[in-house]
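Design review, sub-item: ligand-bound model
Attendees: FS, YL, KQ
YL presented the inputs for the NAP complex:
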Amino acid sequence: MRILVCLTDNRPEPWITALQEALPGAEIEQWRPGAMAADHAVVWMPPQALLDEQPQLQCVFNIGAGVDALMRLSISPQTRIVRLDDAGMSVQMAEYVCHALLRHFREFDVYEEEACNGRWVYRKPRERSQFPVGIMGLGVLGQRVARAVSQFEFPVLGWSRSPKRLEGVQSFAGESQFHEFLAASRILVNLLPLTDETRGILRRETLLHLRPGGYLIHVGRGAHLVEEDLVPLIDEGHLAGATLDVFREEPLRAGHPFWSHPKIVVTPHASARTLRRETVAQIASKIHALGRGEIPSGTVDRLRGY
Ligand code: NAP
Ligand code: GLV
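KQ shared the predicted structure:
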């Protein structure tokens, strides 16, 4: 079996070593133009040239959950696109969202500021029933986040394409229930995949449906948010603030207004990192599943785009 590795923004050597340990019989090398014809490729944001040169690939294994960068490429219809499913990401995402939610709800940002000024001041306790958490996307990550948030006894709502039955989560589905979902949410968590349907979904017109004093936790993809719309909504007081992990352009450029806005927290696309050990183990087990003639979990539905 032959495997090519092509990871934009990642050093390939440790991945090749780890894959080699997990799949001792395989021939594994970094992709370069003119590389050997392979059975599989392990990728993150590969160039079109790889796919053009390797139309025989059985599988392209994405070392992340979101496959939007792959869906922009032209990939032979016979090649399966396989995403990472969880592999240690969902617990990180739950930590990140709970941290942002609790920081906002318990006003830890205000306490930090007061402490910097040596001031001992209490904030009035707030009613969690007044902070319903709406999660856009109830897939691998969204469901884990919903479970974690419900442990803190916030009302939890979720929006997905198909309706879900999840304990403690009020489910909304499809475009027809989108505005109803937004109107019932005050904290909005975005965990949608980026597709033609979801690009620009976080914009003035949709965010205005949130309850007043809404708060955005944006961890999907930068292009979900119409960035120009966010600061005015905060400055007008409709939104209380936002925690943003993903941006239209990454890294976020120096001088971008998000960096300095007092109600916006910026993190560098770090909410759920790819973990190499878990990822390699998952790819190896999917390759074994293929060997048994099974369809590996995480196979992307190209028509849906995720
Ligand atoms: P997933 O398992 O594919 O779940 C996607 C969810 O979104 C599903 O519930 C799906 O509905 C819903 N959905 C898709 N299109 C929709 C639409 N048009 N309207 C309503 N709901 C829609 O994906 P995941 O593993 O949870 O990951 C979600 C996204 O998180 C990834 O695509 C990636 O962009 C992002 N992510 C970010 C980071 C980070 O570090 N910031 C890390 C990992 C992932 P159905 O259930 O009905 O299909
Ligand atoms: C990271 O953003 C991922 O999609 O895994």
